[in-house]
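Is manganese (II) ion placement plausible here? Inputs below.
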Amino acid sequence: MRIKTQDLQTINELHLNAHRRAFARLSEQLQEAGIDPQSLIHSLHQLQIAIPSWALGTGGTRFGRFPIGGEPRNLAEKVEDVGLLHALNRASGAISLHIPWDIPEDAAHIQALASELGLRFDAVNSNTFQDQPNQPYSYKFGSLCHTDAAVRRRAIEHNIEVIHYGEALGSKCLSIWLADGSNFPGQRNFQQAFQHTLSSLQEIYAALPADWTMLIEYKPYEPNFYATVIQDWGTAYLLCQKLGKQAFVLVDLGHHLPNTNIEQIVATLMMEDMLGGFHFNDSKYGDDDLTVGSIKPYQLFLIFHELVGGLAARQRPVNTLAWMIDASHNVKDPLEDLLQSVEAIQLAFAQALIVNRQALLEAQQQNDVAWCQELMQQAFRTDLRSLLAEARLQAGGALYPLQAYRQLQIRHHLIQQRGRKAVATGL
Ligand code: PSV
Ligand code: MN
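Reply from A.M.:
I modeled the complex. Tokens:
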């Protein structure tokens, strides 16, 4: 299914006058504070969030799955779904694949389809956390860290295959998350597991094309509940340092123990130029994979405050990081959920852009604690939704993507096209 420009315009027309009034009010407010709304819009256009190919269908929990119908049945349909999101919000111009869930059998066709829809391929993700059918080895006790060299070899080869799939699609980044770890004290020797992981990663790193980056994701627990080999950002950082200049840490918001100060981790990684990418999601308890900004929007803003500051300090454009969503949808329409997530990310980004950094610096220097808080919250509490709508309008998208998605009855059309029982691959 494709969205017709004319249909989108007709829907936008309905809200245009109200939007113009709201945006004029906001523009005045911003200009009074010395901020140029058009330059914010320019920055918003730079921020493109990659949609994970594994989040286009309903995810499940180990207790069950409730498919919504019309889910993409193959990679081409997944690319089409991301195309729908991008047509609506003009901010989802990239797709991140998980191999072997989404092996591009016909790379040329998939790439042509993606570029027709204005999409590029962001990081490719390897999967050594599940055994595949007829696999002559098992990842039950780990992959890159495994005690058995033959299993490690297979996991290394899989990662190298993933690089080749990515190359065929124009991707420039390999993202690695390992489920490796142990469930019980004494089960594994920590140092040996780390050393095996490092030497396996070194072999993969050696196969990385010169213009690629490798992202290493950390996670404190799950599916292993006693220890994971790459449990925290420090361990990921250590591995990256030992690997070389093309390796960077990937921060997944759901991979932290409750109340961890993620923004401080981001600040440190930015300072060291070791942050390579992000997996956005939200959580109340752990790796809940909920809609971005649905539980802790202030934390998201604080993270973006560090990201924006870190990028500016290094004069790095916003599109030099791999910005991705990593989510799972159990009760919502995945496409609606993704639209909400992208909007939450854009909002936090825009809020971070309007922080009065000079005043904040001075207040910090003076140890004026109350004023520091005031400045942060002033930005966070500014309603920038009409700015986002204007950015979409200028880029040819929908003023209000979720409403447009419903008015265009997209899910209904997808169900008609693909069937009520179509279920996507992924988690
Ligand atoms: C693991 O929890 C993770 O965050 C990794 O990024 C995986 O690649 C992804 O989820 C799979 O859903
Ligand atoms: Mn992740």
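Short version: The first strand starts at residue 50 and ends at 52.
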